Every structure is written in C-alpha cells, then in structure tokens.
Amino acid sequence: MTSLKFVFLLFLISFSALAQKDYKLWLQYDKIANDIISSEYKNNIQGIVSFGNSETSKITIKELENGIVNMLGSKPEINSEINGENNLIIGSHTSLNSELRKILKTDFDKITNESFIIKTINLKNKKQIIISGKNDIAVLYGVFNFLRLIQTHKSIQNLNIADSPKTNIRILNHWDNLDRTVERGYAGFSLWNWQKLPDFIDERYIDYARANASIGINGTVLTNVNANALILTPQYLEKVEALANVFRPYGIKVYLTARFSAPIEIGNLKTADPKDTQVIKWWKDKAAEIYKRIPDFGGFLVKANSEGQPGPQNYGRDHVDGANMLADAVAPFGGVIMWRAFVYSEHDANDRAKQAYAEFQPYDGKFKDNVIVQVKNGAIDFQPREPFHPLFGAMPKTPLMMEFQITQEYLGFSTHLVFLPKLFQEVLESDTYQKGKGSTVAKAIDGTLYQNKLTGIAGVSNIGNDLNWTGHPFAQANWYGFGRLAWNPYLDAETIADEWLRCTFSNNENFIKPVKNMMIESREAVVNYMTPLGLHHIMDTGHHYGPGPWVSDLSRPEWNPTYYHKADKNGIGFDRSKSGTNAVSQYAPEAANLFDNLETCPEKDLLWFHHVSWDYKLKNGQTLWNSLAFKYQEGVDQVAEMQNVWNKSEKYVDSERFNEVKMLLEIQQKEAKWWRDACLLYFQQFSGKELPAGIEKPTQTLEYFKSLKFPFAPGN
Ligand code: BDP
User: Which of 512, 551, 552, 588 has the fewest CB atoms within 10 Å, counting from its CB?
Assistant: First the structure.
C-alpha cells in the first residue's frame, strides 16, 4: 500500500471512530487512564454472575460487559455460579437464589417495582456487589446506574444505593410526522422510517431505546400531537408493533397520538361525537385491535380543540366527555389518556395566558382514573422563561403531568447552547402555595401534594436522525437532563451537568469546572439576549427563529409579538395584575400577591405581569430602559464568555466535537447580537431614549433586521 493510501485509510478509521463519539451520547464508556482508579474497579469486579434469562437480562449483561471492557480494558469472567469474592451479582427478585433474596429482604420490602438496589454485601464472609430490583427492567436501571458510577469515577467500595423513580410516566413526545418531517425538530428527520418498517429494524431504534433506558425514560409517543389518523390504520399499526417489540426489553412503552376525528377519517363514520354510540364502539374496537398487537401499549396523547385540531367541542361536548370516552376504550387494557391542556382560542378575547386555566380548572375531579391532564410548564408556550402554569396545584382531584419542551423551538433551535435542566429545575422548584408554603410544582407532579396515583413528566423530543441525534452536541445534555429529572424532579441542574459532562467528555476537573459553569449560565444567557425581565413570545413569527417584536399583522391577535410586549411610549410589558387582565388571580393568594405587587414581583418576571414605564427604577437603581439594554448586552457578553471557556477546553475534547461546538458558539454569538440589536432598536422607537454607555452600537438598522426572512427555517 502506498503511504498516501495508508494515511488516507488512517484518516478514515480515525474519522469514523470520532464520528461515533458524537453518536454514543453519554454512553461513551471511555477507557479510564488513571491506573489507581481503574485498579480499584478491577479489584471489585473480578467476575460477573448473572441470574435471569429474559431478553432484558441478556441486554443488561451485554451492556455491563461492554461498559466494563471499554472502561477497564479487560473482560471480567461471566459465571452462572458465585465463586470466590468480588463478584458483581446481577438478578431480579424472582431470578436470584433464596439466599440472596434473604439478604436483600429488608431492601426489597422498601422499594417499588421500578426501583433498583446496588449494594455491597457479605456472602459467606466474602464481599460481593449485588445489583437487583423487583423485575428485570429495574435491574437494567441499576446496571446503568452502576456503570455511571464508574463513568463518573465514584467509589464502589461500600455501596448501599436504593433509588426509585418519583413519577410513573417518564415519556418523550415526538412531534414526528408520517412523512418523517418533525414539527419543531432541528436535528434532521424523524428516526422512524415508516417506509421500511416493519421489516427493517434500524440499529438506531435499539440505540435510542438503550439511551432512554439508561436515564429511566419508560415511554415514547411516536407521533405528532398535530395528529394524522393514518397511524391508527392496520398498515401503520404493524409498523408501530415492530417498534414496540424493539423497545419492550428496554422497558419502554409505545404510545400514539389520537386524532379525535379518526372515526370519520379512517372509520367511515359521519361523526366523531364522543357521545355517539358508534363512535364509542369504534374507539373500543380500535383499542382492542391495538392491544392485540401490542399488549403493553401505553395509551393515547391527545391535542383536542387546540390550534385547529378537532375535538369534542366540535360536537358541543367538552374536554371531559372526549377524554373519558377514550379512557373507557383503553381502560380494560390498562392504558392511559394523556389529555393536553394547551388550549386557547381566537374567539376568546381573554388574555391567552388565562385560557387554559379558565377552561380546565372547573373540570377538576371529573376525569376518569386513567386520564392525566398534560400541562405545559408555563401558560403561554415554552418561552425561555415563564412563570409556572397556574394549573399546577390547582386541580387537587386530577392528576396533572408536566410537559417540558426539550427541542429548542423558542431557544435558538439546535444552534444555541442552552442547558435546559436549569429551566426545568426553576419550574419544578416554584412554589404554587396551593396547599400552603412549600407546595412546589414538583410535588404537584410527583403526586405527593395530593396523593395522586398516576404521575408523569413528558418532554417534547429534540431527537432526529442527525449523526449526533440532537443537532447540537450539548443538546444531548437536555435529553439526558430531562430523563434524570423525570426520574427525580428534585435533582439539581448542576449535578446533572456534572454527570453528563463526565460521561460524555472527560472527568478532568480542569475541564468539568468551567464547562459546567458555562452550561449552568447558558440558560440565563439566552433569557438575557432574547427575552429579559419577563418579556416573552417576541420571536419572529411561524418558525420562531430570531427576533420579531415588530410583527403585528397576523390574523389571530395572540400570534403577534406586539400582543405580548405591548410597548408604547408609556412603557412596556403585559399588565396581568389586578388592574390588568388579572391573570394573577389564577394563582394561590400568596403567589398572586407576590406577582401582583410591583414591589414584590420578581424582576425576572416583571414584564410578564406588569406594564412598566420606561423610567421605572429597578432594584439596581437603573431605569427600566437602561436595565433592558444592559440585560441584552449581558446576554451577548455571556455568550462571549461561553466561547472563551470552550476555546480553553480544546485539549480535553476530541477535535470533531470541539470544532462543532466552537462553530455553533460562533453562530450563537452572532445571533445573540442580532437579538440585542433588533430588539433594542425596535423598543427604542417607543422609549425615545439613548442607549446607555456600555452597550455596543447596533450592527445594522432596524429596517434591515425587519427585512430578514427565513422561508425555509427548519421545524415549521
Ligand atoms: C407550539 C408549537 C406548535 C405545536 C404547539 C403544541 O409552535 O408547533 O403544535 O405548540 O404544543 O409551541 O401543540
């Protein structure tokens, strides 16, 4: 072989190895270079003893073996009997032998079905580690957690871990269409290759399931909430069944979106009225047909009478009628209905932020037991910052599940580095005061506030068929963090960032510290350069890419950014106080008063709740106008600092991911400036004031920014 060819071959090999890094997400299993750390692990894991024969057990052992071989560089013996000491014993309650069951009896007594146990035990005077749980899926969770201990270089000398998920339904919502476009998707096309299914099983389906199981996600809605009834036809159900078969051993249930008018569209009925006997029968038969194929089918997610989707109101019925009819259809099979509360109407002149609460709160206690109402984190729509949705804590007799958006529709698509667990945590920690102080959103969601049995957290997926799954390497952290918070809504964003960085990149403290800090700051940065001080929904229209505070000509008033910021010569902001739309009254009195009073309203939410004069003095002693300008500038500066941090991390990261992130940060920096300049120039027309010292001069004119058009922005 000529040397040139050889170099080329080497290049190809190293290129594909690197490309794989991006693909491997947080399951890199990099070799541990530090011999001291590595030998501690080797000493403690001399052999693996596996009980259990199920498909899940086989996957579990394969994962463990793969992880250990890669990280420790040698293959532990896999045995069916326990010999000697320092074995890693793997098995569920039913598959373990009676001696081990006895040793773990008190642990088993304390845990739920999905919990895992990782414990150092003494068996006939020999030290062993056991990973167990009540069933094989729980054991799989335990093994992923054990591998994470090694990935993050934690000690495994003396283990005594028992961990249970705090919510039942931990689910991704894919807004994927049957033509493989993804609504608000910025990472390529849909993973689901409907044309090749059911016979062709893409390796990606397996890797997707593996990644989800590793963070405890146990459900996936395959299709867009703006639903297509065809998914419920036999032709497609056969394909759904194939995916369900792939996901099952990983503990992931499949769900579908149900288009309310499906009985008409694919069932040849004249109506979809939920009280019509033929319609009721149609859905019952449809459920039976689905469960025959997929016995553990999870149920339906429904967007009804929202943004043009059909629903019970088309027939003079209400959300309760619609949800309960579907609930009856899936109840015999143990299915659930996730009914969305994302509603607002062009016929309702009321503040959009008030409409979902106004409509749903009176339904409290009226839904069937297997209905859970899915509520977005805020009352408008996945903004960089929103106060928590007033429905949380306000429906004591109705299980509510959280809907977060992992895909960055309003947060710079997959181009901007924004660590969302920080946003999620802020919402989950918010105090609703609905049952007194400490009634946090997390408690409303995990069922502890009102003892709800059905609980859940949904995340609108940011996953597509891009090589790196999520478009931005750091957007993988949002998928990861969502899963971790769905498992435990009390986790801290910093802990999550720390884990993710170690598993994904490196354990080197010189890398972890600054980059973790960069991730944590990134959320406030995006708020600052897009929508500081409580501004919201001022993105350009339709695609929501870039600033568009000037847009005011759309048919529905509440689609116009001007509806939300209400800038005029007197000031800026949406008056939702008692003297405004009184949206504050939808909160418990303590929260309502806090938001209502200009003095106590958190400044981060100021313009969400108040219309404030340009000269109003903020706590920093500066006028609102100056403070707004400083915030926009701060956002730009924060991105510059993120670039700084990243540039210094080059030696800890493979060149491919390093360069990708570097380029993306450059775009983010450009776009942060675009946001700052466009918004400040636009708002300046109303404030009539000079930009304070320290604010960079705008790079272009307002007319220029207004002229920018993006007819092919993705995800729209
Ligand atoms: C909005 C999106 C739209 C979704 C809708 C929803 O712009 O694409 O269909 O929410 O959640 O954020 O139903």
Answer: 552
pLDDT score for 13: 47
| pLDDT tens column, 239-265 | 999 999 999 999 999 999 999 999 999
Residue ranges with strand state E in 223-370 = 253-257, 299-302, 336-340
Task: Name residue 257's beta-bridge partners.
Answer: 301
Whole-number Å distance between alpha carbons of 549 and 563: 9
Query: Which strands make up the sheet holding 116-123, listed edge to edge?
Result: 77-79, 47-50, 87-90, 126-133, 116-123, 160-163
Q: Which residues are catalytic?
A: 307, 381, 409
What angle do helix axes 493-504 and 136-151 make, rounded to 10 degrees? 80
From 181, 183, 305, the mutation candidate for ligand 1 (largest count of ligand atoms within 8 A of CB) is 183
Q: What is the CA radius of gyration of the chain?
A: 26
State pLDDT tens for residues 396-453: 999 999 999 999 999 999 999 999 999 999 999 999 999 999 999 999 999 999 999 9
- Which amino acid, 443? K
- Ordered structural domains, the chain, with CATH: 23-163 (3.30.379.10), 169-492 (3.20.20.80), 528-574+611-707 (3.90.1330.10)
What single-letter amino acid sits at 370? N
Separation between Cα atoms, residue 510 and residue 369, nearest integer Å: 51
Helices (H), 164-268: 203-214, 234-247, 262-265
Q: Range with the lowest mean pLDDT among 259-268, 312-321, 415-424, 555-564?
A: 555-564
Output the CA angle 520-521-522, nearest 5 degrees. 95
Place of tokens 């435990």: 488
Helices (H), 367-437: 421-429
Name residues whose C-beta falls within 8 Å of residue 470's C-beta, 6 or more positions apart in sequence.
187, 414, 462, 463, 464, 476, 478, 479
- Facing residues of 131 across strands? 90, 118
Look at the block and give the residue holding tokens 């459920």. 287
| pLDDT score for 698 | 96
Question: From the CA of 342, how far away is ligand 1's center (Å)?
Answer: 9
Is 163 within 8 Å of 121 (Cβ atoms)?
no
Q: Are strands 400-405 and 47-50 parallel, antiparallel or unpaired?
A: unpaired
Residue 305, C-beta contacts closer than 8 angstroms, at least 6 positions apart: 311, 312, 313, 314, 319, 343
How many angstroms is it from 600 CA to the middle of ligand 1?
Answer: 32
Q: The tokens 């989950």 sit on which residue?
A: 428
Q: Which residues line ligand 1 (CB under 6 A)?
A: 183-184, 225-226, 303, 307, 342, 381-382, 409
Mutate to test the pocket of ligand 1, among 182, 374, 409 (most ligand atoms within 8 A of CB): 409
Q: Note if the bond before 514 is cis, omega within 30 degrees.
A: no
> What backbone phi and psi angles, to 5 degrees, belong to 385?
-145, 130
Q: Which atom of ligand 1 is nearest to the CA of 224?
A: 9
Q: Whose CA is nearest to atom 10 of ligand 1?
A: 381
Residue 422 parent element (H or E): helix 421-429
* Residue corresponding to tokens 């000493």: 43
The residues near 368 (Cβ < 8 Å, ≥ 6 apart) are 323, 324, 327, 328, 331, 337
Six-digit token string for 665: 């940060």
Scan for tokens 């899915």, then name that residue.
Answer: 374
Give residue-wise pLDDT tens across range 478-528: 999 999 999 999 999 999 999 999 999 999 999 999 999 999 999 999 999
Alpha carbons 426 and 414: distance in angstroms, whole number? 22
8 Å CB contact between 494 and 516: yes
Say if pTM beats, i.e. exceeds, 0.85: yes
